Amino acid sequence: MPTKALNLTAKRLITTAFIAALAASAAGCGSTSKFTTGSISRSDSRPLETMSSGELRTATSRLGQSYASNPNDKRIAMNFSAALQMDGDADQSLAVMRKLAIAYPKDREVLAAYGKALAANGQFAPALDAVRRAQTPEYPDWKLVSAEAAILDQMGQKDEARQDYRKALELKPNEPSVLSNLGMSYVLEGDLRTAETYMRSAAQQPGADSRVRQNLALVVGLQGRFDEAEKIASQELSPEQAQANIAYLRQMLAQQNAWSQLKDQDKGKAKVATN
Questions:
Q1: Is 270 within the bounds of a domain?
Q2: How many separate domains does the chain show?
């Protein structure tokens, strides 16, 4: 597959994966909580990304009710924002985090999550500012360094991003979320072999979570190894969800290939016309 075609496809497909990785990086910068693994409440420890669309809507609705009753509760607001983000409502997710950032203007955890919500809305410069303001230079937090790197990657600043990823790995050696994000950086560039190396290393680490393994499934699928990708995805998702994800991946790659072929045909006709 041509690198240019891959880049166009990859940038569409990895948006959700990168935002999920950024959520893992930005969350938990202070106290630990179930939000750091993407769960929504004490009664439900399942990560958001493993839920079906119906389950996610139910969870989001339940969190919305809790948020309406107590909008200044930091944990409820952050969980609600995360659920909204996963459910595809980036605008409302950002609105929730913006209000929380006003209420907690110096809270590192809130600022980091606010930066993540800004990045999800494509507001990368303000997102970078929020994450950097949350950082303490004398005691750097690897989660914030990784979050900064993920934002820089989405801004197209891959060299600066990779410097930050490696700095985060110096602070937290073999951290699976950072290795996975670094792999995603190479996916953006179209270097899938290098990406898979980092993804597999991430998935083999003791602390690897569902997001890390789903990212590995993504990069394997992008290389056309669909059966292997579905097998990896099935370890985290229901068989139906795994099949649906791989079917979507197949469709996106097929559409991209068809579009590339049409462009090549157009170029060929143009050359004939000018000869």
A1: no
A2: 1
Angstrom CA distances, 215 to 23, 196, 258, stand at: 14, 9, 25
CATH number, domain with residue 27: 1.25.40.10
At residue 68, does pLDDT exceed 90? yes
List, in sequence order, the alpha helices (H) in the chain: 3-26, 53-69, 74-86, 90-103, 108-120, 124-134, 142-154, 158-171, 176-189, 192-204, 210-222, 226-234, 239-274
Residue numbers of the domain that contains 154? 3-260
Q: What's the mean pLDDT in 151-163? A: 93
Q: DSSP secondary structure string, 194-258?
A: HHHHHHHHHHHSTT--HHHHHHHHHHHHHTT-HHHHHHHHHTTS-HHHHHHHHHHHHHHHHHHHH
Q: How far apart are CA 16 and CA 35, in angstroms?
A: 17
**DSSP class of 49:** G
pTM of structure:
0.73
Q: Which amino acid, one-letter code, is at 217?
A: A
**Gap between the Cα atoms of 141 and 144, Å rounded:** 5
Looking at the DSSP bridge assignments, the partners of residue 44 are: 41
* pLDDT tens sequence across 105-148: 888 889 888 998 998 888 999 999 999 988 988 889 998 999 89
